[in-house]
Amino acid sequence: MTNDPFFNNVLIGVFIAAALFTIVLFITTAPYGKQERDGWGPGIPIRWGWFLLEFPSFAVFAWFYLNSDHRFSAVPLVLFILWEIHYVHRTFIYPLRLRAKPGAQEKIIILLFGIIFNASNGYLNGLYIGQYAEHLYSNSWFSDPRFILGILLFAGGFALTKHSDALLRNLRKPGETGYKIPVGGAFRWVSCPNYLGEIIQWGGFALASWSLAGLAFMAFTAANLIPRAISNHKWYLEKFEQYPKERKSVIPFIL
Ligand SMILES: NC(=O)c1ccc[n+]([C@@H]2O[C@H](COP(=O)([O-])OP(=O)(O)OC[C@H]3O[C@@H](n4cnc5c(N)ncnc54)[C@H](OP(=O)(O)O)[C@@H]3O)[C@@H](O)[C@H]2O)c1
Q1: Less crowded by CB within 10 Å, the N or C end of the chain?
Q2: What is the pTM of this model?
Q3: How far apart are the C-alpha atoms of 29 and 143, rounded to whole Å?
Q4: Do the Cβ atoms of 210 and 193 come closer than 8 Å?
């Protein structure tokens, strides 16, 4: 906790939201992609949806970080660069590379929730790393095992997500719109290795920054992606009779 009551309240809010989301998302799945369905109100084209959804994570983090006192300290700068490498890709490149179904939409209600939570997480992490995290301002943090392990997890998770997203994207030849059984990479163990990679990546970031803000973001990511991975796995089993039976949803050999 910090001496900033507003910051602390937002932090608690994100932890509470992550807990509530876990329950809600086990009951119902967000209606996009494989789970797209009617009855969730109007939507906007999926590429714009991704852009608008992810932009607050990119911009709000950058705004608070770049206005903080320790923005030129080495450790915070490394964490800032890692965050932004992910979000520059997710905001500006990923939406353009999607091989989306014609008419695919992001529902506005989902978009609004996403914008609020991404802005909150960008605010918490940008401000904490640039301003409040005293342990990060000394270069000795570079040799701390928490930092080293955290960076390794971040890099491994990042690589797993990007590789799995690329395998998924290449399932559709240009112009194709259907679904196929994904193969290769970590798909041999789980149906949603892209989600697993994302959770590992933000777990690594939380460890490297040793912060409740990072932990809140990891909790939020897991709350979002674990129930969705379970739904996607069930969807694959129902859709494809020949779907590999030994494959799990998101955690190899376990879940
Ligand atoms: N940090 C967070 O809280 C959070 C939240 C959500 C997503 N993400 C990340 O954002 C990325 C995308 O998420 P997502 O939920 O959209 O992933 P997804 O459902 O796996 O879909 C990714 C892309 O691959 C296509 N695709 C998926 N399965 C396919 C199949 N069997 N055959 C052909 N094409 C297939 C999808 O098309 P369709 O759209 O037509 O299904 C979509 O274009 C992931 O890396 C995820 O980790 C992060």
Answers
A1: N
A2: 0.96
A3: 41
A4: no
